[in-house]
Design goal:
By secondary structure, this protein is an alpha+beta fold. The protein has two domains: about 20-125 and about 165-190, Rossmann fold (3-Layer(aba) Sandwich), CATH 3.40.50.10990; about 130-160 and about 200-220, no CATH class. Helix content is about 25%, strand content about 15%. It has a five-stranded mixed β-sheet. β1 (about 40-50) and β2 form a beta hairpin. The radius of gyration is 18 Å and the shape is globular.
């Protein structure tokens, strides 16, 4: 059963405001194994301390969670749109927890996108790498007793990462973004986005780099194992690695 439906069935529109009318009756086979279908429900201006954005609210048929896109500049129909996928983190994004780098990642991304001609941040409601807030706090308690972030998830009966990015792929398609290839979305380059560690999150970040394939450099080397297809990394020479 194919997991990636054709995206050509979603009509292009002239402005973000046209998305709501276009999507009012939208229904498609869905993306990914869960056949996730999303539709745009609302669009509004959202001036922020990071620049002028428009916010686009999405409904999805899987769990009803409300994901949003922060849009800067004209992204409709554009290629090579700088895009950040950010998973919800209440403890970091809102409460300022130092156990992770989520708030720093979010703010640096919005600052950078706001300084560009165009850019896009998808805020995905996937708290705790997809296990939810209560289970994330349970995982924190296990980490307090000596487990790392991966083993804590496993001890609770989850995979180390339960997130599903099919919803993000559909959101990008709904925004008529041409390239940002997974779930039919072509990734043309990767822009490094690394925030310095602190004393409370260093082990967490080292575990993500060592065990989850995240591109976090602690030893002066690039880590590019989190994605199978080759990509271009800004500031890194292309071509085969030296012998």
């Amino acid at each position: 059963m194919p997991s990636n439906p054709p995206s050509g069935g979603i009509p292009h529109v002239a402005t973000l405001d046209d998305l709501v009318e276009r999507d009012k009756d939208h229904d498609c086979p869905g993306y990914g194994a869960a056949r996730i279908c999303v539709r745009v429900e609302a669009v509004a201006d959202l001036p922020s301390r990071f620049g002028r954005f428009r916010i686009v609210a999405f409904w999805n048929n899987r769990d009803g969670k409300e994901h949003v896109a922060m849009v800067h500049g004209d992204v409709l129909g554009a290629e090579d749109v700088p895009t950040r996928l950010h998973s919800e983190c209440l403890t970091g994004d809102v409460l300022g927890s130092l156990r992770c780098d989520c708030r720093d990642q979010l703010e640096v991304a919005l600052q950078r996108l706001g300084s560009m001609p165009r850019g896009l941040l998808l805020y995905l409601r996937q708290e705790g790498r997809g296990i939810g807030l209560i289970h994330k706090i349970r995982a924190y308690a296990l980490q307090d007793r000596g487990l790392d972030t991966v083993d804590a998830n496993l001890a609770l009966g989850f995979r180390d990462d339960e997130r599903d990015y099919a919803v993000a792929a559909h959101m990008l398609t709904s925004l008529n973004v041409g390239s940002i290839e997974q779930h039919g979305i072509r990734i043309t380059a990767r822009i490094p986005h690394v925030v310095p560690a602190n004393e409370y999150n260093r082990v967490y970040l080292q575990t993500k780099a060592a065990r989850s394939g995240h591109c976090i450099d602690f030893e002066g080397k690039e880590h590019l194992i989190e994605q199978d297809e080759p990509v271009i990394v800004e500031g890194m020479q292309s071509g085969p690695a030296p012998e």
